Amino acid sequence: MAIIRIPPVLRPSVGGEREVTAEGATVGEVLNNLVGAHPATRDQLFGEDGGLNRYVNVYLNDEDVRVLDGLDTVVSGADGLVILPAMAGGASLSR
Amino acid sequence: MTQSGSELLRHVKEQIKEVDPSEVAQLLGEGVVVVDCRETEELAAGMLPGALHIPRSYLETRIEGVVPDRSQRVILYCASGIRSAFGAHTLMADMGYSDVESMAGGFTLWKDRGYEVQVPRSFTAEQRERYSRHLLVPEVGVEGQQKLLDARVLLLGAGGLGSPTALYLAAAGVGTLGIVDDDVVDLSNLQRQVIHTTDRIGTPKVDSAAETIKALNPDVAVVGYPTRLDASNIMDIIQGWDIIVDGVDNFPTRYLLNDASIRLGIPVVSAAILGFEGQLSVFAPGRGPCYRCLFRQPPPAEMAPSCGANGVLGVLPGTMGLLQATEVIKLIIGAGDPLIGRLLMYDALAASFTELKVRQDPECPICSRDPNEIADEELGVFPDYEAFCAASG
């Protein structure tokens, strides 16, 4: 089981929670279980090919899973996952 | 035992090593720390190039901040070699430093022999008072304050993030601040954009910010760009600035800025905010990953709300903007560990900071290449850029 940190843009899809927990032995399993519990997160996390969307970063603790084993990265009980989509809030300089 | 001053000096000099200016001239820039221990008023005639300044009266209390390694070779000098002899003796005998020498004849002999002298910018009495709390910090000091006064920092936006950043950089004495913003002050801005005031509603933000900055610190020159950043003007606008502070609200401009800043080799201190959360990182070309390494692609429009549409806690851009200002000052004075290769996330509701590693992407389409080979038409471009822009409206 892992604690998953949910970014502001995904919170409406998980009932407003900032953190949720999900079972799984790998990052992929944990995220699939998250999607199972909160189907609205599917399109935001995964592309049509089943891989992570390129605009979403997932970190196991503080490391990007892309430099680990991606969705196959092993998750242990004490680990935390961080889902990080890019944010761009700030000053309006061009449109 | 009672000793006269001259006897004490002779006694001290017997116990320390003195080094001749000719030898010091050979050692400059060779890993030796040279400390000028004269009083501040004595520096107007110049210092040894690269020397650090700690007045003799503060030597014991500040040396550890400047030279934490007690085995580091240190050469002290004063005007004639007396104060530096006493200082060297104290550091060796009482503080455990193992390799401290005093320059014989001091600055006077150095200058008489015609060795190179670096004349520091002389601060006015008002500047010495204004920046006195900086001058007291070893990591800033006279040298750091000079760097701040010489620095040119470009702020993208005088909005939520840019307001606090501009205020504190101006207060710190950053000599030239550029501000890019084509907006006018609106009543709804004032909940967070603290550089503007109620009586300036309707005034261009660039002018309003310049007015506040001038009132706060007349040392600061403000260069205003009342325009929107786009591919046609970005190279002209950002060229020649030392550091760029990015807090723009949309992805096309962030990627455009990233690519242009890599081409020109300018570090970007970047922050983003949404609701109760902020992100902060420093993208320094040649020293770490870039924005594209962190976020390979911009999200589609439905995943990319801007704070205009979603709201933001008014103090949050203050917090994040001041973290940006802190990183800017660290880059200018060269102190500490800048937030390069790291992303700091701040969750205001949880009152927690989370740090994530940002890895350089060896296949990054921009920063893995020779900057000179990045063409104008590639700046801010994605293979599906047109579709993305159309979707984001």
TrEMBL record, chain A:
Signal peptide from the UniProt entry: none
Pfam families assigned to the protein according to its UniProt record, in alphabetical order: ThiS
InterPro entries named in the record: Beta-grasp_dom_sf (IPR012675), Mopterin_synth/thiamin_S_b (IPR016155), SAMP1_3 (IPR054834), Sulfur_Carrier/Prot_Modifier (IPR052045), ThiS/MoaD-like (IPR003749)
Protein name: Unannotated protein
Automatic annotation (TrEMBL), chain B:
Domain Rhodanese: 28-119
Keyword entries, A-Z: ATP-binding, Nucleotide-binding, Transferase
PROSITE patterns documented for this protein: RHODANESE_3
Molecular-function GO terms, alphabetical: ATP binding; nucleotidyltransferase activity; sulfotransferase activity; thiosulfate-cyanide sulfurtransferase activity; ubiquitin-like modifier activating enzyme activity
Record-linked Pfam families: Rhodanese (PF00581), ThiF (PF00899)
Keyword Chloroplast: no
A GO CC annotation given for this chain: cytosol
Name the UniProt record assigns to this protein: Unannotated protein
Lineage: unclassified sequences, metagenomes, ecological metagenomes
